[in-house]
Amino acid sequence: MVSSGVHDPDNKLARRAGVPALRWVSAEAAARPWDAAESARIDNPRQRYSNSKLANVLQARELQRRLRTAQRGVDVFAYDPGLMVDTDFARSVARRLRAVLRWVGAAATPSVDNMGRSPESADALARLVTGGELAGTGFGYFDGGTQRPPSPDALDDDDAAELWLDANPLVGLASDQPHLDHRPAQ
Description:
- This protein is mainly α.
- It has one domain (5-170).
- Helix content is 41%, strand content 8%.
- It contains 6 helices and 5 strands, in the order αααββαβαββα.
- The strands form 2 sheets. Strands 1-4-5 form a 3-stranded mixed β-sheet, covered by helices on one side. The protein has a two-stranded parallel ribbon with strand order 2-3.
- Helix 3 (45-69) packs across helix 6.
- The longest helix is centred in the first third of the chain and has 25 residues, at 45-69.
């Protein structure tokens, strides 16, 4: 699952780029902010983005736990490609500044953690998925090609389970274990 280091309150690059630290709310409040109580509403789109990336990691961890419980030999990884300086992520920046940001970003990439270019990120993801050396290891969080722990918020088992259960009705699933209880015919 693709995530992002912006879910980590200690991610200095995200904070310098103006992405506020997350403020976790329920799956319902995240999915339907217009219906959320004012205390649970997050109006800042960048903070909603941080929350969505935390949700990706929580979802990956809970999926891994459920797959292991169902004795399925599947590993689930959360992957942070880093800030991709050669994409249109900065589309909210004035058009005339985008080229400058891309040039500065490309020049700074080798010396800034969690910043990269899409070809290198794609190569790291392909190695992660096809390499085989991580088979059987279970959940892993990867910052580019490097495995590291996700943020402490992403390690909260209660939030992961709650997100799983709360998200199912939002996507139209009735069971709390979709497709994990049914084994294919042999």
